[in-house]
Amino acid sequence: GRLSSVILLRHTTHNTFTSSKRVPFAPLSGFHRRHHQNTRAFLGLRVKNSCFSTSAMNKKPIKPDPKQRGMGMFLQRGVNIATQAKGEGTTTPPKKTISAETTTLKGSSLPRIEGEDKEDQEGAQKRTKNKTSKKETTKTTPSRQSARKREKPEKLDVSSPKKKPKAAGPTKYHENSRREKGYKRVCGVDEAGRGPLAGPVIAAACILPEGVQIEGVDDSKKINSEEERELLYEAIMEDKRIETAYWICDEKRIDQINILEATMECMRKSTEMLPGGPVDWALIDGNKIPKGLEDKAEAIVKGDAKSQCIATASIVAKVTRDRMMREIDTKYPQYGFKDHKGYGTKAHCQAIEKYGPCEYHRMTFAPIKYMDLSKYE
Q1: Of 4, 137, 202, 338, whose Cβ has the fewest other Cβ atoms within 10 Å?
Q2: What is the CA angle 290-293-297, rounded to 5?
Q3: Whole-model pTM above 0.70?
Q4: pLDDT tens across 139-173, in order?
């Protein structure tokens, strides 16, 4: 192995073969070059540019020439580039010596240096003046950022946002506007019981004469206390100046013509049942006008919160239906009609699943219409 490497080295170093024909020698890679150098050093041969060569190991470090010019010296202050290019002068910049009698510049604390020009001293003076003026301006006039920071409150207001003031209750604006146009008998109409799974739907109509207003009348859904609704109902019914009437469509009629048509029928019939006779104009709560009232009615969305006569009708309809549902509860107490008034609560749905629907349930309402009623027979 060593002999073959030596023969290979002799042929490759002299770029000759045994036929002594000159051929171009391809450069070796880094790995092969190190292998050749290590092999020659092991055999005691001369190695060029190798860490094993004795000449490289015994060579003393070269000291830098002080006259040698580099790019770094041109960046040093006090070195004349022209003289250095000609080879004259020294590469080390002159040392700055402060004279014994140092005089300070006007408005600055910088000492006067002998090696500096007048222009450098004037520039230093201007820089110091600018710095002092900037400090003074920052003390007297705040910057834009600091002014903005000062405008911000020191402590953030973490308190809850202010609640919007409650809107005023129902008024007589709609009734009075129609009376001004010549309509004397203006009534309000509202319903109760469109959504429940059991019981009837009821619509009531009320006429409030001019100057008559019951304190506390509002949308029946906003009056949380059942006792308060009862008191308002009694006050409305006791006042003989107020005309009231209502119409009932039971669950069988609802299953026959659907809940929307039953509601519209109740609204129309209630206006016809008023004791003073037919009305001149009707204010309907909602977005639909019943058939037969197209020429003398208007629909008001959320009218029970805007009109006094509609709010009065909503209380009459709600209390009348609640009383009917309490009577039904005496017949079928297992459903709890006195509590949920026939609405589809969880307890009501569980009772329907357990006992099946009764005669007061609406058979066209889900989930009753999807139930298998044969198991309850």
Answers
A1: 4
A2: 100
A3: no
A4: 555 555 555 555 555 555 555 555 555 556 788 99
**188-207 confidence digits (pLDDT tens):** 999 999 999 999 999 999 99
The verdict on whether omega for the bond into residue 161 sits within 30 degrees of 0, i.e. cis, is no
Helix intervals (H) in 61-143? 71-74, 81-85, 118-140
Residues 33, 36, 42: CA angle, nearest 5 degrees = 140
CB neighbours of 279 closer than 8 A, spacing ≥ 6?
Answer: 185, 186, 187, 205, 207, 271, 296
| φ/ψ of residue 156, rounded to 5 | -75, 140
Reported as half-sphere exposure (CB side, CA atoms, 13 A), residue 287 has a value of 0
Instruction: Please tell me the distance from the alpha carbon of residue 258 to that of residue 275, in angstroms, as a whole number.
Output: 28
Q: Between helices 308-331 and 226-238, what is the axis angle to 10°?
A: 120
Helix/strand/coil for 85: helix
341: number of Cβ within 10 Å = 22
Give the separation between CA 53 and CA 47, rounded to whole angstroms.
6
362, 198 Cβ separation under 8 angstroms:
yes
* Positive/negative CA dihedral, 17, 18, 19, 20: positive
